[in-house]
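Can you please make up a protein's amino acid sequence together with its fold in token form to help me picture the idea?
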Amino acid sequence: MPALDSLLQNNRQWAADRVGRDPTFFTRLEKQQAPEFLWIGCSDSRVPANEIVGLDPGELFVHRNVANVVVHTDLNCLSVLQFAIDVLKVKHVIVCGHYGCGGIRAALEKDQHGLIDNWLRHVQDVARAHEVKLEAMPTFDARVDKLCELNVIDQAQNVARTTIVQDAWRRGHQVELHGWIYGLKDGLITDLGLQISG
């Protein structure tokens, strides 16, 4: 229990620091949620979405899962996407992976890890589709990083194919999709040059 107590203490300190810097912070936060951005990212604890883009709570709607996968059978992800687009009216959906992703590495290693293997089959499908590019990479780590990039692009394209996004575009909702990747080694985000707007 002492480890959990430290988390609660950290929370109290964080809340006090917030109020110290901005006495109306929680009052404003409580009354509105109006983010312009939906972030679909990896569950990796080293990638704190709000922090790495310098946004406060309430400014970034977030969905995370292992290896930032978007599939048409994941009702959790699709529900987040629909709420973000139809209710919050976000203008940008960002799929952001990260270099050195453990899920991507596990998909490439093809070792058995249990239930997660079923989820990682989606990433293995991406790897099979780009086998020639991946085999051209000089090292296994380079293949992992290349697959991290290719997976982001594939998942952003999956977002574009959802009925949620297709219906939004038909209604004239201006939502753009982006593919980014985060570097654990330097903390920098790279835009992979994917922008889909209809």
